[in-house]
């Protein structure tokens, strides 16, 4: 009898340690479960195809006992069809989204409301992992399909696949005047087969965008890290990765045959280290101050690294582009390129009439040369013009 009681106690303890499992098949069942989950619980979305979902969870797990939302089997809970409301909104803390698939979704922009597939907002230590985003499309320019927003902290997006998506931005980290999502980690994802967007100006098709307003808000520090990702045939627009905030890190990513670059469009004091670029139209484009660009490898590109002219300089002046300055370009390996390092891209470009000077009080001539940059210990071989000024 004593051993039987001990067994019952142990089984009860095990049940408590693993938490409850809620199996759901509808949005209504999901929202009901989301109102009840506690640390260590799971919401399991049954295998199947789903349309018309708009669900939200705002709960708190713990580091030891996160709340997990997962597919019954990896990749077999599939969301598809027209999307007029965000499918899954995550806030709270220590929530994991795992193994879901979003395929063939058509997102329609609604007045006054964001429409994305997954939004992680006002969240802490939340994670999206092992999810797939394939053949999704949007009907308006600059629409992302995954968003980190609302002063979120320590969000992680990892081991996901973004393939064959159309006219969209894939992952966007929002940086606003009053809400900055910080310490986002985007790692070990695959971005692949992204065709050029059809929008005017060939703009709005980044795979990863950190910040949205480099002119007025580029000085905001997001401290995001984008590392160990693979970008293959990502041709959405000229910026495969678009940095528009300060203090971010881009480490050990690979770019293969991409029609675009890793771009320091705005912001300052970012680290770009140990990335590999093979084929495609470019490597790293640099505006802003104090970036460190080290240990990167470039092979078979028109230009490996471009240090750009600007309309202004430093961290205080407002300019549609800020001249590259006080950057360190060190220990990079460049081979079989047309030009290794270009010091002075877009010299004297005239932007008159091309942006709103009331919104962005900036000069329109891109005539401030790069300055005070340090180039050292770079290895440039089999390249027509190692350094061009």
Note the main attributes of this structure.
single chain, mainly beta, 6% helix, 389 residues, elongated, Pectate Lyase C-like
Radius of gyration: 23 Å
Number of domains: 1
Helical content class: under 10%
Q: Structural class of the secondary elements? A: mainly beta
Description of the molecule:
- The chain has 389 residues and is mostly beta strands.
- It has one domain (2-388): Single-stranded right-handed beta-helix, Pectin lyase-like (Pectate Lyase C-like, 3 Solenoid), CATH 2.160.20.
- The chain has two helices and 40 strands.
- The strands form four sheets. A 13-stranded parallel beta sheet has the order 1-2-5-8-11-15-18-21-24-27-30-33-38, with helices on one face.
- Strand 1, helix 2 and strand 2 (42-45) form a beta-alpha-beta unit.
- The longest helix has 17 residues, at 2-18.
- The radius of gyration is 23 Å and the shape is elongated.
- Mean pLDDT is 95; it is low at 8-16.
Q: What's the arrangement of secondary structure elements?
A:
Blueprint: H1 2-18, E1 21-24, H2 27-34, E2 42-45, E3 48-50, E4 55-60, E5 67-71, E6 77-83, E7 88-93, E8 95-98, E9 101-107, E10 118-124, E11 127-129, E12 132-134, E13 137-138, E14 144-149, E15 156-158, E16 161-163, E17 169-173, E18 185-187, E19 190-194, E20 208-210, E21 225-227, E22 230-234, E23 239-244, E24 249-251, E25 254-256, E26 261-266, E27 271-273, E28 276-278, E29 284-286, E30 292-294, E31 297-299, E32 303-308, E33 328-330, E34 333-335, E35 339-345, E36 349-350, E37 365-366, E38 374-376, E39 379-381, E40 385-388
Parallel strand pairs: 1-2, 2-5, 3-6, 4-7, 5-8, 6-9, 7-10, 8-11, 9-12, 9-13, 10-14, 11-15, 12-16, 14-17, 15-18, 16-19, 17-20, 18-21, 19-22, 20-23, 21-24, 22-25, 23-26, 24-27, 25-28, 26-29, 27-30, 28-31, 29-32, 30-33, 31-34, 32-35, 33-38, 34-39, 35-40
Antiparallel strand pairs: 36-37
